[in-house]
Amino acid sequence: MRSLCFPPLRGLSYSMAFVFLGLGGASAQPTHGIAMYGEPALAPGFEALPYANPDAPKGGSVTTANVGGFDSLNPFAPKGTPPWQLRHLSYESLLGRSYDEPFTLYGLLAETIEVDEDRTWVEFTLNPAAAFSDGSPVTTEDVIWSFETLGTRGHLRYRDFWTRITEIRQSGPGKVRIDFDTSNGPPDRDLVMLAGLRPILKKSQWDTLVFEDGAIDDIPIGTAPYVVESYDVGRQVVLRRNPDYWGRDLPFRQGTNNFDEIRIDFYGDDAVMKEAFKGGEISYIREFNAERWEELANLPAVERGDIVRSVIPNGQPSGISGFVMNTRNPPLDDWRVREALIRAFNFEYINDALTGGRQPRITSYFSNSELGMRPGPASEAEAALLEPFADELLPGTLEGYTLPVSDGSRRNRDNIRAAADLLAEAGWTVEDGLLRKDGEALVLTVLLQQDALVQQATAMMDIYARALERLGITLDVQSVDSAQYTVREANYDFDLTYIRRSLSLSPGAEQYFYWGAAGADQPGSRNLMGMNSPAAEAMIRAMLATTRHEEFVTAVRALDRVLISGRYVIPIHQYSEGRIAHDARLKYPADRLPLYGDGVGFLPEVWWMAEDE
């Protein structure tokens, strides 16, 4: 057994992170779970997660679908494009998350967790029954190796956590202790949670294989209920429920992972995938367009009762969906140009044309929740956090910023006029029908991926392009396949592209990865807009440092102000509910929906196949 020590560094953050803000209590004691505030909602010995049906029958096969392809089955390697579902269905972490609480983790591979009051260290005690799918036991050496390998050779999203650790070691039989860097003060309080969410892999599998390559045949051995049974590169992956799954009797797993088989089929575009669903080749689809959702009601299969349309509400923040502007590229580094582009986007008209006006617009990144900024000026507490950065804050941050609203007509005269004034203020003039500065015409490249949202996004851009023509701006819309999109997005080869960032009720250090300066010029980061905002990073630090709920909310609202007033994204619809059309035999606990709705941990995890009726 080895003990790993290395110098503390600071660097890029990660995407799969959540914030932990205090348990209370002065002494460290092993516990079955850990919560954001107070105690976990579920007591030791709980029967099942509240949104799972412990009596759900096992069996059946379900087919889901993705647009695009895949060339790897390793969701942790820096290379390759794996099916996104694998991380959640085939691999486990030391703790598992309940999606019916803002932020609570319960024992999974680890039987207990122990932390000190200041969260400077965490110790996990492994469940002695924990085993990989090949039957071999999960050891402390596997845990330590997984942390090191993901932190030094894994995907970028795992790298920063490794720099926050000063030591990881076996601290007793079946125990792993992690000490965090305190050289710059108390560590971020979510680190104990991140440690619990780190996936655990089998060390000995990689003695002769190269982890970084993401080679298609090198499928990491996991501990979760499903294993890869077969695959056809770029076309299909078949997962089979492991009958010898080690954790089938855990309370955390009761009523979950009920299907014997999960097939993931891949399609070249969304239209073909939707037709496959209508033909009965796919078990369920999600529909993001409200108008197309209503059209599904007219399907003969819906009228016969073979297909059911289910609406799943959620209580999480809206997140941000829309078209992100790459501020690395002039003139998008000028906020006046970005504001002009936002004003020229006639959301009210577009929304009516494409969805019949059925979907409301996102108003801020954390809207639809208590974490969202409130209309009008910043509160006294928010202003106190933001004032040190007053010189860099854009107009509207402290005073209050709202998205422009049109009269709903095609012309959008008032906003087009305001956009033209902003562009003129920024030094742009119309010459021979084209907007120019220093003789160069303004041409913007919009990069779109051929996925489930491309049709709607393309339709939006068609309307938007005509509006921009009135300002003398040329929009070059480029729709590419998944492989091309991945490369171009990673290298920020676009002016605008579609962005979707889901945000939780417990935002944490992943916010650095989304908006932090460290990712502005590093290829492959999730900071697509190229943000470099000391104010935003200070709000994230404040959010992570506090142990009081009121201060946490204040810091997130202040961050929300910086983000929306930064004019980085042209926001579109919010998705406050999930719309799932599915085989009528697929059932879910409709009377106990999770707080986070139709997200990770819901479909297919807690659904089951009923007998033919």
Considering the chains and any ligands shown, give keywords for the structure.
single chain, 613 residues, alpha+beta, 5-stranded antiparallel beta sheet, 5-stranded mixed beta sheet, 16 helices, 24% helix, 20% strand, globular, disordered N terminus
Principal-axes shape call: globular
Helix content: 10-25%
Largest sheet geometry: 5 strands, antiparallel
Report the span from N to C terminus: 56 Å
Strand order of the largest sheet: 1-8-9-7-6
Total helices: the number is 16
Q: Could you tell me the strand content as a percent range?
A: 15-25%
List the helices and strands and how they pair.
Elements: E1 4-5, E2 33-35, E3 61-67, H1 86-89, E4 95-98, E5 104-107, E6 110-115, E7 121-126, H2 140-153, H3 159-163, E8 165-172, E9 175-180, H4 191-196, E10 226-232, E11 236-241, E12 261-267, H5 270-278, E13 284-286, H6 290-296, H7 300-304, E14 307-313, E15 320-325, H8 335-344, H9 347-355, H10 380-386, H11 413-425, E16 429-431, E17 434-437, E18 440-441, E19 443-449, H12 454-469, E20 474-480, H13 482-490, E21 496-501, H14 510-515, H15 534-545, H16 549-565, E22 569-571, E23 577-583, E24 586-587, E25 608-609
Parallel strand pairs: 3-12, 19-20, 19-21
Antiparallel strand pairs: 1-8, 2-5, 4-5, 6-7, 7-9, 8-9, 10-11, 11-12, 13-23, 14-23, 15-21, 15-22, 16-17, 17-18, 24-25
Helix pairs in contact: 8-11, 10-16, 15-16
What would you say about this model in short?
The protein is of the alpha+beta class.
Descriptive report:
The chain is of the alpha+beta class. It contains 16 helices and 25 strands. Helix 8 packs antiparallel against helix 11, helix 10 crosses helix 16 (549-565) and helix 15 (534-545) runs antiparallel to helix 16 (549-565). The protein starts with a strand and ends with a strand. Mean pLDDT is 91; it is low at 1-26.
